[in-house]
Amino acid sequence: MIYSDGNSGWGEEFASSSIRDAMSDHREDVRWSYIDSLKDGEGGIVKKNGIETFYITKFSYQDGDPNLSSPVMFRLAEMYLNRAEAYAKQGKSNLALNDVDMIRRNRGLENSLYNDVVPQGYTALQIVLKERRIELAFEGHRAIDVYRNKLQMDRSYWGYHLPGLKESDINLATKPQGYANEIVDYTNPRIIYYIPVDETLANTLCVQNP
Length: 210
Fold this sequence. Notes:
α2 (76-89) packs antiparallel against α4 and α3 (93-105) packs parallel to α4. The chain has 210 residues and is mainly alpha-helical. The chain has helices spanning 17-23, 76-89, 93-105, 124-135, 142-148, 197-202, and strands at 35-37, 47-48, 51-52, 54-56, 153-154, 183-184. The strands form three sheets. It has a two-stranded antiparallel sheet. The protein has a two-stranded antiparallel sheet with strand order 2-3. Strands 5-6 form a two-stranded antiparallel ribbon.
């Protein structure tokens, strides 16, 4: 679903405008290499069902196969980010930023380090979570990271995660408005997983989550 070279894969799961905006300050970031735009003959971005085609290639081209990948399940960068988050919550901002900078040095951002300074208008935790989002993008961490920190999930970008979206609704010059569940709070019951059906069948006293 995430990539197609024209002969393989559906290629219908794109890198959202939200993650691209989060990365937009640093085009030199090597993590841009995981996002591959599909362009037409005139250099414009091809749209599929009204959405710009930004393929995700993070899980592609193992052994030259465009749809083959054996993901690394435990990553050194995640260890640094886990520790950075803990430091931030302990008020140890300099140590948190040191761990973030450790990653940025290896992502082509050696000229854009924090050097113990939390940018004005941000907290150390916000910096850590932003770096975590970019570093672990497309690996399935985002929802857990957001709700663990009692934050809101902002899904207000164009895509077919928006209930009832029609191609004629899409205006890429604006943000979507008025769709259900664009913003999902950590207190929302929809984020609670269902109890597996085998458990509810085996235990008549088990009540399914709403």
